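lol ok so funny story. i was supposed to be doing the assay writeup but got distracted and ended up predicting the structure for this chain instead. priorities right. anyway since i did it might as well share w the group, maybe its usefull for someone
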Amino acid sequence: MDALLAEPADGALFVSGCVANQGSFYPRFDAIVLLSAPVDVLLARVASRETNDYGKTDAERALVLSDFRAVEPLLRAGATAEIDAREPVHEVADLLESIAGVSGSPTPRGP
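and the output, tada:
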Protein backbone atom coordinates (compact mmCIF):
# COMPACT_ATOMS: atom_id res chain seq x y z
CA MET A 1 0.00 0.00 0.00
CA ASP A 2 2.86 2.39 0.79
CA ALA A 3 4.35 1.89 -2.69
CA LEU A 4 0.98 2.41 -4.37
CA LEU A 5 0.31 5.60 -2.46
CA ALA A 6 3.84 6.91 -3.09
CA GLU A 7 3.32 6.87 -6.87
CA PRO A 8 2.34 10.17 -8.48
CA ALA A 9 -1.39 10.31 -9.02
CA ASP A 10 -2.69 10.63 -12.54
CA GLY A 11 -6.35 11.01 -11.69
CA ALA A 12 -8.31 9.50 -8.86
CA LEU A 13 -7.24 6.37 -7.03
CA PHE A 14 -9.94 4.20 -5.48
CA VAL A 15 -8.87 1.59 -2.92
CA SER A 16 -11.25 -0.97 -1.48
CA GLY A 17 -10.69 -3.29 1.43
CA CYS A 18 -10.83 -3.79 5.13
CA VAL A 19 -7.77 -4.62 7.23
CA ALA A 20 -6.81 -4.10 10.85
CA ASN A 21 -4.29 -1.31 10.12
CA GLN A 22 -6.31 0.64 7.57
CA GLY A 23 -6.71 3.63 9.90
CA SER A 24 -2.98 4.30 9.63
CA PHE A 25 -3.51 5.08 5.92
CA TYR A 26 -6.49 7.40 6.37
CA PRO A 27 -4.42 10.61 6.54
CA ARG A 28 -3.11 9.84 3.04
CA PHE A 29 -6.58 9.84 1.47
CA ASP A 30 -8.84 12.74 0.59
CA ALA A 31 -11.95 10.76 1.51
CA ILE A 32 -12.83 7.56 3.34
CA VAL A 33 -16.15 6.25 2.07
CA LEU A 34 -18.20 3.59 3.80
CA LEU A 35 -20.34 1.56 1.42
CA SER A 36 -23.08 0.43 3.79
CA ALA A 37 -26.05 -1.90 3.67
CA PRO A 38 -28.20 -3.45 6.37
CA VAL A 39 -26.98 -6.79 7.65
CA ASP A 40 -29.95 -8.65 6.17
CA VAL A 41 -28.99 -7.34 2.73
CA LEU A 42 -25.36 -8.39 3.24
CA LEU A 43 -26.38 -11.87 4.33
CA ALA A 44 -28.73 -12.21 1.35
CA ARG A 45 -25.97 -11.15 -1.03
CA VAL A 46 -23.51 -13.62 0.49
CA ALA A 47 -26.09 -16.39 0.27
CA SER A 48 -26.92 -15.71 -3.37
CA ARG A 49 -23.47 -15.13 -4.83
CA GLU A 50 -22.03 -17.82 -7.04
CA THR A 51 -18.38 -16.76 -7.18
CA ASN A 52 -17.43 -17.47 -3.56
CA ASP A 53 -18.67 -20.16 -1.17
CA TYR A 54 -17.80 -18.23 1.98
CA GLY A 55 -20.88 -17.44 4.04
CA LYS A 56 -22.96 -20.38 2.95
CA THR A 57 -22.76 -22.32 6.24
CA ASP A 58 -24.56 -21.34 9.43
CA ALA A 59 -21.21 -20.90 11.22
CA GLU A 60 -19.87 -18.58 8.52
CA ARG A 61 -23.09 -16.56 8.46
CA ALA A 62 -22.84 -16.19 12.25
CA LEU A 63 -19.29 -14.90 11.81
CA VAL A 64 -20.41 -12.41 9.15
CA LEU A 65 -23.06 -11.15 11.57
CA SER A 66 -20.59 -10.93 14.44
CA ASP A 67 -18.02 -9.10 12.30
CA PHE A 68 -20.70 -6.73 11.02
CA ARG A 69 -21.73 -5.80 14.56
CA ALA A 70 -18.14 -5.33 15.75
CA VAL A 71 -16.50 -3.73 12.71
CA GLU A 72 -19.18 -1.65 10.99
CA PRO A 73 -19.36 0.98 13.78
CA LEU A 74 -15.56 1.38 13.59
CA LEU A 75 -15.71 1.83 9.83
CA ARG A 76 -18.52 4.37 10.15
CA ALA A 77 -16.55 6.32 12.76
CA GLY A 78 -13.57 6.64 10.40
CA ALA A 79 -15.57 7.47 7.29
CA THR A 80 -15.81 10.95 5.82
CA ALA A 81 -18.79 9.90 3.69
CA GLU A 82 -21.26 7.04 3.51
CA ILE A 83 -23.07 5.61 0.51
CA ASP A 84 -26.04 3.27 0.72
CA ALA A 85 -24.84 0.26 -1.29
CA ARG A 86 -28.43 -0.86 -1.89
CA GLU A 87 -28.57 1.76 -4.64
CA PRO A 88 -27.94 0.63 -8.22
CA VAL A 89 -24.25 0.11 -8.99
CA HIS A 90 -24.12 2.99 -11.47
CA GLU A 91 -25.49 5.37 -8.82
CA VAL A 92 -22.92 4.19 -6.27
CA ALA A 93 -20.17 4.71 -8.87
CA ASP A 94 -21.48 8.19 -9.69
CA LEU A 95 -21.48 9.12 -6.00
CA LEU A 96 -17.94 7.81 -5.56
CA GLU A 97 -16.77 9.83 -8.55
CA SER A 98 -18.51 12.90 -7.18
CA ILE A 99 -16.77 12.53 -3.82
CA ALA A 100 -13.45 12.07 -5.64
CA GLY A 101 -14.11 15.14 -7.76
CA VAL A 102 -14.00 13.27 -11.06
CA SER A 103 -16.62 12.38 -13.60
CA GLY A 104 -16.65 9.24 -15.63
CA SER A 105 -17.82 8.64 -19.13
CA PRO A 106 -21.54 8.68 -19.55
CA THR A 107 -22.89 5.17 -19.29
CA PRO A 108 -25.97 4.06 -21.17
CA ARG A 109 -28.93 3.61 -18.85
CA GLY A 110 -31.68 2.14 -20.86
CA PRO A 111 -33.15 -1.12 -21.99
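Residues 2-100 form one domain. Helices lie at 2-6, 39-48, 58-78, 89-100.
back to the writeup now i swear
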